[in-house]
Design goal:
single chain, about 140 residues, mainly alpha, 7 helices, about 0% strand
Length: about 140
């Protein structure tokens, strides 16, 4: 019997989510008016940031098993912004404060500014339906 290799590692999921968040922030910045797609984009950013935050603990758990405490703590500090900005974005979005949404999305864009996404990406539109998911929670 051979080993079972998990191809759905938290790091791979985090990379996929951060690329999708960067794309959503860029699309949201192009919007001139608040419409259903703008609400979907902002809701997707909230949900994806929360999912990114959920990948932090499984990543550092392996390091803590090997007593790499400093590395684990440094990683948590490096990605601590995800939960803070997700909470902030959720509050301003549900309060219908679009100036706050713009400000928070710019903070997120600053964190993800190194991510390169080509014009011919294959991510599609992962934010479709996110507003309904967010309001159902």
């Amino acid at each position: 019997m051979s080993r079972v290799i998990n191809t759905n590692a938290p790091g791979k999921e985090r990379t996929k989510l951060t690329r999708a968040i960067a794309l959503a922030v860029r699309e949201l910045a192009k919007k001139q008016a608040v419409d259903t797609e703008a609400k979907d984009l902002a809701a997707f950013i909230v949900l994806a940031l929360e999912a990114v935050n959920d990948t932090i603990e499984p990543t550092v758990a392996a390091w803590e098993k090997r007593n790499y405490w400093v590395k684990a703590d440094k990683f948590r500090l490096e990605w601590g912004w995800a939960s803070q900005l997700a909470d902030q974005m959720r509050v301003v979005l549900l309060d219908d404060d679009w100036a706050g949404v713009a400000q928070t999305s710019m903070q997120i864009a600053m964190k993800l500014q190194k991510i390169k996404i080509s014009e011919k990406h294959r991510m599609g539109r992962p934010w479709v339906g996110s507003w309904k998911k967010l309001t159902k929670q």
